[in-house]
User: Fold these one by one.
Assistant:
Number 1:
Amino acid sequence: MSSNQGKLKPSSSELDLDRPNIEDYLPSGASIQEPHGKLRLSDLLDISPILTEAAGAIVDDSFTRCFKSNSPEPWNWNVYLFPLWCFGVVFRYLILFPARAIVLTIGWIIFLSCFIPVHFLLKGNDALRKKLERVLVELICSFFVASWTGVVKYHGPRPSMRPKQVFVANHTSMIDFIILEQMTAFAVIMQKHPGWVGLLQSTILESVGCIWFNRSEAKDREIVAKKLREHSQGADNNPLLIFPEGTCVNNQYSVMFKKGAFELGCTVCPVAIKYNKIFVDAFWNSRKQSFTMHLLQLMTSWAVVCDVWYLEPQNLRPGETAIEFAERVRDIISVRAGLRKVPWDGYLKYSRPSPKHRERKQQSFAESVLRRLEEK
Amino acid sequence: MGNSSSMLTQYDIEEVQQHCSNAFSQQEIVSLYKRFCQLDRNGGGFVSSEEFLSVPEFAVNPLSQRVLRMVDGLNFKEFVAFLSAFSPRATLQQKIEFIFKVYDSDGNGKVTFNDMLDVLHDLTGQFISENQRKQVLTQVLEEAGYTKESLLVLSDFVKILGSSGLKMEVEVPVD
């Protein structure tokens, strides 16, 4: 498909970045055409449009495409490129990787030897402690970024600490958080993870005001909503960062935004993150890979290249609902990062779609039957 | 780096092609195989209904349960044969046979009034009452020269749907 586009528009890579792909916005039940005239038996028995839709979804669907990892283009396909590629592999695994591991270890040593004393000795001086901890968290995130030679270009004004504003970004991997965190110590809302990530969450990241939740716990939602509201009002709290997609998407699509971040009555500052897949696909497919494996993959690649745009802050317009607001912000981010929008909730990875969607299709079919029954 | 499609040999592909009476090109079969493996998350060699329903676009289809009954537990060869009715190369007869099979839930080659009513129920849900559905169906059946008691066979379906410009084609994305 992309080759087709390439033929039509020679400079499509430039254009694609700035153009929304609204045409891919799925119509619901649009395939059921609107024929006229009196209802005949063949009209009732002809279920081919709906069957075609079903078979089309079996063959290809926009939801699965959101979570598909892209394997890197192989380029080692000839006699002189192959040795070059082999050399690259040896270099990446035997020189680059150990060097990066050392950098990361040094980073942790520095971080922990400062963080622990600061955390325990400065108990009495909260303001100073918070400030130092913030700087240290930014520091360790910089070490992380260095450990995969992150080449990150930040565009737009750097976020500052102000109450009543919340940052929302598209989500590709947990490293989004690290990349944003190295510039500004955000307080992030995140799924509680198991293992060493969970340990970091509950010890270090707690100190910058991060909020954790369990996706499966219904009562967590209310608690998180309450915490969010409290946090966003506090004057000297770190700015809030939310990934409203609620799940990692492969950086080519964007799934529906959860409305939570848009109901706080705060200014919403969109952040768009676009990864360049030239060296490595930064998409973290948490079903296939642990986060440790994901990090190892990044640390053995040449570099992680990405662009971060801090975009124009947005406010709820009069008469706009939280859902419309969320969609508008998703538009802004998707256009900037060149993502295709799909009308699906990312949580469908874990659950089934609501019967509402099916009912809409049934309703449109029923209406057309009834209308044509009356026609003579 | 090998990907899953390289596991299909030319011999395999030809076998599948024969099984679906050449409804798909070799490239399309390779694509379908990739898709099949993607859907078959636990790698059991078949796609379970649970796995089909994880595709939201499929799960919201009003006829998904009916289609599921036909595709549940198919291996790749049967899966392609199932989809062959949607190929542009399939004949009108094959497409109508497929539709007939959707209606003929007990597979005895006859479609009863209730079979049609069931499908109509799936299509319209709560938006038309059961009585009204019966009434509509009876009316159009009679207008077409059948009655409530008629048992429709495949040739009836061919007669009814054959002239209605059936369009039932799915494009297999090929890269």
Number 2:
Amino acid sequence: MAVSATLPDAMNPTRSFQGLLLTLQRFWAERGCVILQPYDMEVGAGTSHPGTMLRSLGPRPWRAAYVQPSRRPKDGRYGENPNRLQHYYQFQVILKPNPPNLQELYLQSLEAIGIDMKLHDIRFVEDDWENPTLGAWGLGWECWCDGMEVSQFTYFQQVAGIECAPVSGELTYGLERLACYLQNVESIMELNFNGLEGDEKVTYREVFLQAEQEYSRYNFEHADTAALFRRFAEAEAECRALLEKGESGERHLMVQPAYDQCLKAGHSFNLLDARGVISVTERQSYILRVRELAKACGAAWLKTAGGSAIDNGYRP
Amino acid sequence: MPDLLLELFSEEIPARMQRKAAEDLKKLVTDALVERGLVYEGAKAFATPRRLALHVAGLPVRGRDVREERKGPRVGAPEAAIQGFLKAAGLSSLDQATIISDPKKGDSYVAIIEKPGQETVAAIAEIVPAVIRGFPWPKSMRWGAASAAGASLRWVRPLHSILCTFGAETEEPEVVPFEVDGIVSGNITYGHRFHAPGAITARRFDDYVPSLEKAKVVLDVDRRKEIILNDARTLAFAQGLELIEDEGLLEEVAGLVEWPVVLMGSFEERFLEIPGEAIRATIRTNQKCFVLRQSAIGTRQSGDVATADCPLPTAPLSNRFLLTANLVASDGGKVITAGNERVVRARLSDAAYFFATDKGPLPDLETFAQSAEELGLKEFRTKPLDQRMAKLDKLGVVFHAKLGTQGERVQRIAALARELAPIVGADPALAERAAKLAKADLPTEMVGEFPELQGLMGRKYAELQGEHPSVCAAIEEHYKPLGPSDRVPTDPVSVAVALADKLDTLVGFWAIDEKPTGSKDPYALRRAALGVIRLVVENGARLPLSEALTSAAVPILSHKMIGWRPDTTRGDARTIVWHKLGFDLLAFFHDRLKVSLRDTGARHDLVDAVLGERVAHPGIEATLPDWLNRASGSPSPLAGEGGAARSAVTDEGARDASDVDALQTQAGEGGATPHPNPLPQGERGQGGGSDDLLLITHRVAALARFLETQDGKSLLAGYKRAANILKAEEKKDGEGAFAGAADLQLIAGAGLIEEKALAVALANATPAASAAVAKEDYEGAMAALAELRPAVDAFFDQVTVNDPDPALRINRLKLLNQLREATRAVADFGRIAG
């Protein structure tokens, strides 16, 4: 593959997991993105990061890229399934408004991580993305490389129930899956994390297997459901309270703390769902409750410095 | 004549939308051209993942000139009239008008307005932007910087460029100039995303297509399909394998590539333990690849995963698959194949895991114990599929918010299947067992992943736990038939469960007023009714439909979600509701039967004739047997009281029954709540055919055959004549004036010989026909009626009906009335055309 000759193994996207991550960061940094760090809360997807969820609303241009650990308690398999984890990494790019050549940029990023377009079959297969808890949807594709889905490509149409104006382009790379392909291993746990060999080699297993086992036990067996129900209610109440307290005439002064509570409610719900204590009918109503919080946060965001028009004379 | 070439180049269009979009583009553009008087010789539209293209051949250079004459006021008319005329005609002074002379009316002004035909290029420049802005995509989007403004252009995915040229073969075509949201039309397109991404100049369709081919784009989807299919067959053949063809998949795959390259991959043989249908579903749904089987000849062997009904019946699957790439890879496709194999392997590992999990016991079995007990699944501790049913019930999975859970529905279907079993010749215990397991595969891992395998996986798992073969078959087949061309199950157990499933669905959705309307039928109720009809007719089953519907209705109307509780002290609101619902549903069945018979070639009017009045007035004649007593849970207090109560319900209760609240109020207020009364059994015999779908079809067939004979045609003519005379005379004498038997003594004394002959023939034929009908011998009934023909013909030849003697006249009209009545035993001849 094209890039491998020029990079040391530890930084090589086809040899090391971190090399993949660093290469993508570098690639998007060179294209004007702010490189953010992971949000310091449990979220189910990179989209939930305020850097996407809130920043995709309102008229201000925004370009960011970051890695986000995604927590999906229900997907835990005690580290035994080669492809499914309750904690994995997404690499997220958000470009607002989407540049006209976003597809080309995306393909260049694949070249950058060592996917040769003369050898690999890249396809854009219809996938209409929707996140009901965030009140968000968009049109786009699953991006396939040789039959494998390696990314999601979405033009956001609505976020928090609000029409996106302008539309953002969102790219989400599933890093572990992509790395498995680049390193030609069958199981995520076999991934070479640091790109070194022999005694110095660190595998994904060494870094994360124990965590997968421990969290699977917690998610499925031991999470305190009474406490989670309580936390859900508390987070929901606090989110609403903060939104109310942050109101200041035409402005809103406390959206992000409120949004944190929305994320907390969402994670409590995900854990309760994994514990199997939410019935089918209740499930929908919990999703709706989180969505209502997300929508309220989105609406409030439009009244902040970050969410409103540039030339309004208002600065934080 | 010049041609139009249009191409809309965008990011990847969903495969499933491409064909329709191409057709829409053609229709919208050509319709608009024709509307402007621009007639063309031919048009064809194309789609690839990245472009819609349209070629319109043989357009004129400009539209026809239009000359319009606008009449004005007479010469010397008042100034106001003159000014009005000038304004309306767009003239600045009367000098521009012409004066015409009419010998009668005198001179008057005429404005002659000549509009030169519009240049076609100008018309296209108006039409195409409008078509693009209003394009009917099922889902469209905004994008880019322009989307900051409110009304930016919408397209299925970002639209990048527009090629639009117009011109004759002999000259350099010109670019039709227009702009849509910043995209300026030109004569540039682009080739294959990876092979030839550069700009290509296209002049007209004739060079556009080869230029694209050179740039690795096959424009025509049907050609891409042909290439894929041919290459797939060839690759399969070379390995001694056979392609399992799949038109839906082929269409989709052809919409995912501009330059198809078919490659063969393989997977480990150990995965062939997974049922073939599941392998196919995995590879098809997730990977969009074709599967292959051992070539049919000489390869039958053990381990055949096929079942009687699945599309893999002849030979086992092979461990190969075919993928369609969009690239001529520099290594001949090795890397692409290896990559696809990895994914297929991972998917099949999942499927193998699902299959193994589903075959095994569930954890925490005891939490399902109560559900298992309620469902009568006594051996659930040792039977995995029973556990899944118990789990389905325990989870409270909702079938429909107003119709309760899947568990409740299964209970209803099981009871109904048991009840219907003897009617279709099935063992009631087996039918009940099959119904209890029919939905048990819904919570399995495999069906969760591949919903299209429902039923089929249930059958596999039932076989694995040693269920009776009929039970296994019924689990799979109870969803059938899924449409007019789907196979109808024949195993009696399957028939019983399939009927129960569909009747429960129909009654349920009727009860919550979710009936199909117009083109909307979200719960596929028409299909369900057609399914019942085909199950009954094609299996020759004698299903008493009203009773079956009522059996289905009793638990549904009692359901807490519906909330119609029996109130035995005041009569039963459910019964009243059901009275209306049942009639309505029967009428729906008659409608579907008509459609179904018509589709099989039966004459529409004959169906009407056999169904008689019931179609138009289902509430009047439909029979409701003694189920009403069962519905209220105790014998009806009013049973046997006869007409008064019945008419009260039909006239009052039924009319208001759609409003439950009103009904209950009514039930509470009116001391003597009308209680519907079953029609006496005797009344069912003659007209009761409306309840028996099989008999109706037999009758229609017999009637059709009869009307093919000379006797039939002649009798029909005689009937029509009689009916016309009666109609005319009833206008004078009043409806029913000729009812009753003719006076035979009068005929004997004063009648003509032909009159006597008809009286005798009627006296013989009428009871014979009725008796035959009672024995369901429709051929016999027709034969009995055929006996009437000579007498009828002779009567009309020789007898004057409207005799001056009023007694003779009345008597002769009575004879004709008797003839009309006699034919009614078989069908309403008045509804037969011709």
